[in-house]
Amino acid sequence: MRELLSGLRHIGQFRLRRNARPVLLTALLPALLCLAELPRAAAQPAPSPPAAPAVPDAPAAAPAPAAPPVGRAQTVTFAQMGANYTIPLRGLDPDRTVNVGVRLDEVVTAARLKLVFTYSPALIFPLSHLKVRLNDEVVATLPLDKEHAGQQVSREIDLDPRFFTDFNRINVQLIAHYTLDHCEDPYHSTLWTDISPTSSLTLTKAAITLPDSLALLPAPFFDRRDNRRVTVPFMLPANADPLTLRAAGVVASWLGGLASYRELRFPVASGAPADAHAIALVLPNAQPDGIRIEKIEGPSVSVMPNPANPARKLLVLAGRTPQELEIAANAVVLGKAAMAGPRAAVQSVDLGRPRRPYDAPAWAPVDRPVLFRELVTDPQQLQVSGANPDAIRVNLKVPADLFGWNDRSVPLSMKYRYTAPSTYNDSVLSVDVNDQLVRSYRLKPLTVQTDENVVAVPLLSGGSATVSSSILIPAFRVGSNNQMQFRFHIDSQKTGLCASSAANVARAAVDPDSSIDFSGFLHYAALPNLAFFANSGYPFTRMADLSDTAIVIPDAPTPVDQEALLTVLGHMGKWTGLPSLRVTVAPARSIDSVKDRNLVVIGTGSAAQVLQRWGKSLPLLIEQGKTEITLRDQRTHAWSNWLSGIDEENISPAGRAILSADGPMAALIGFESPYGERRSVVALTASSDERVRDVLDVLEDPGKVSQIRGDLTVIRQRELEGLRLGDTYYVGNLPWYARLWMTMSAHPALLAIAGIVAGLLVALTLFWALGRLAARRNGG
């Protein structure tokens, strides 16, 4: 019987030609009849021994519970997928899509979608429902009932895991009606549903053991399909020296550059972690726990199974000396494209030419107009369709020290196309920068006089118009990290209840040749300004490879200090988009060897003793059991943006206070380097080693990063306070006339006197010139 069923199953896997099916059915008919007789035979009682005494009926056996899905469950909300706002489904735009990725080393074994939404109470409910699609496959329809209309409801849907791929799209579409009349208005205000960002997708995933291949790098240590925080443990030798830590920092900054918008953390482990892929740095006589390489013949890079969990991988950088570890690290970040197999020996690595100031790959060029095509990864990101589509979003990073000394604006040359309405209506385009309105345009209809604007391209079919316009963006609207939003609204073209609406779906696009120009701005900034550091790493990221930066660590760094070093360098790579190939790592005892550089001081212990040596030049000094802080009058101050001008605070010091507190405290401190003018120091310090992590937590939280400012940010668990207590210094260059204008504009009385003097000079010059002219006419 089992062989027969197996044969039938095997035959069913083949696709048959139409004329072969009758022959096959004729051949299988006797077997099918036999199968039909089997239940009857099973139903006939078999001969049995004499009946036993009657016993009470036993309870019927409960059906066996379904086996739970294999793997580990992960829940991700719509907000974590990028839809951190209520998703509106309206009229002719009744669908929206969210995206979720599945890592290369995982496979989905079960999935459940929890949809939280609210819908209109004015619908015809038998005709209204939500349609859910996964990668263009309809997976569920959710009826809308009258009992729950106008309330927030939750529905759970089991999704077929076979539909999931590397990158997945979950689409929710509203199909709704408010009347049975044939003149139903698709723009009617009753046709609405709001999807909450708390909606979530729970994926049960099973791990896949990947081959030991360097060709997969950066996977599985970084996977672009995974939008969660990048957490990669580092296994370092005991008592790792600064060169070994620098090699690990280069790899951490490389991962930070790949992380892009994701948060990151690089903890330091003494042994192989069982639940994560990790990176190990190995020397012959200082190998991390669980790693044993018998013979190291030079710098090498290899991938091997994690001894604590064979399904996880270790990226092992090995060398006979710390210098060879640096070569291996440089090979990983620069030569991974040429690597294959489980192991690669490194002969040499050339770092190339030194970087120039302000040439970070993640920053837009500021010496020329930059085209939108350079700011997006795909031109499709500049196109939308529908009456009320989501905004076209263009991200833009620029150096923090751009300075408009004459309050100039940022010129934006924009070209856009749209499906033109037949008549004037409320179709508009709004241009926002960082969610602040800059300009709004009414979209004009296509007329005979504008026929030359008709565009015949595959993107926009039908009557379309193209428009060019120049916008001056106020400088104070722009920061280090920016997003330009272009919001199109194509209004309904219906003129009456039963008038027909446009048959074609409205489409719009911003031309990739649109540009924005920062070339007219100078590089000049007032420091210290911790907001620059927290948002873009300035002034350290001025050189993208950190060639003029040194990280100062304690002489005997703890795992927390090492984690802070790697995480800070990861943020540097994230801010610049480039590994920190020329950064220097120095112990506190050797700080004099890097005194010509900008310094990042990390940790407590001997690093804190360096801060104590600088003493009262710091706005805050944290020692064991004691805190010393500068006291100044704190006036109400609107923190101006970096492009709107330098606002120097004339706040006089009132002294210093020495406090004793038992509670935990951490701080970010910025000040001018005691070793040289126009060199900067940023210190990450705390009342204890563990509290250094509080600073790292703040740098991961965008809401808290926005509170970092001035030259001192005190972190007391979840509370932040930004202050300006120390002296201000300036970096960058201004022409003499700009410096003169700035100096005079800061003193109104002096400006008035200069104006009077200038007026007198002009009057005297005119009086003298007119006198000479009169003398010539009189023959004098």
Helix content: 10-25%
What strand line-up does the widest sheet have?
32-31-33-38-37-39-40
Average predicted confidence as pLDDT: 82
Radius of gyration: 34 Å
Family: Belongs to the AcsB/BcsB family.
Subcellular location: Cell inner membrane
Subunit structure: Tightly associated with the cellulose synthase catalytic subunit.
GO cellular component, one term: plasma membrane
How would you describe this structure to a colleague?
This protein has 780 residues and is α+β, with helices and mostly antiparallel strands. The protein folds into six domains: 2-37, no CATH class; 72-207, Galactose-binding domain-like (Jelly Rolls); 214-345, 2-Layer Sandwich (Chitobiase, domain 2), CATH 3.30.379.10; 376-493 and 504-517, Sandwich (Jelly Rolls), CATH 2.60.120; 523-732, no CATH class; 747-777. Helices cover 20% and strands 30% of the residues. It contains eleven helices and 41 strands. The strands form nine sheets. It has a seven-stranded mixed β-sheet, sandwiched between helices. Strands 1, 2, 4, 7, 9 and 10 form a six-stranded antiparallel β-sheet that branches. α3 (242-259) runs parallel beside α4 and α3 packs across α6 (559-576). It is globular, with a radius of gyration of 34 Å. The N and C termini lie far apart (134 Å). The model is unreliable at 1-62, 448-463 and 636-651 (pLDDT under 50). It comes from Cupriavidus agavae. Keywords: c-di-GMP, Cell inner membrane, Cell membrane, Cellulose biosynthesis, Membrane, Transmembrane, Transmembrane helix. This is Cyclic di-GMP-binding protein. Binds the cellulose synthase activator, bis-(3'-5') cyclic diguanylic acid (c-di-GMP). Residues 54-64 have a biased composition (Low complexity).
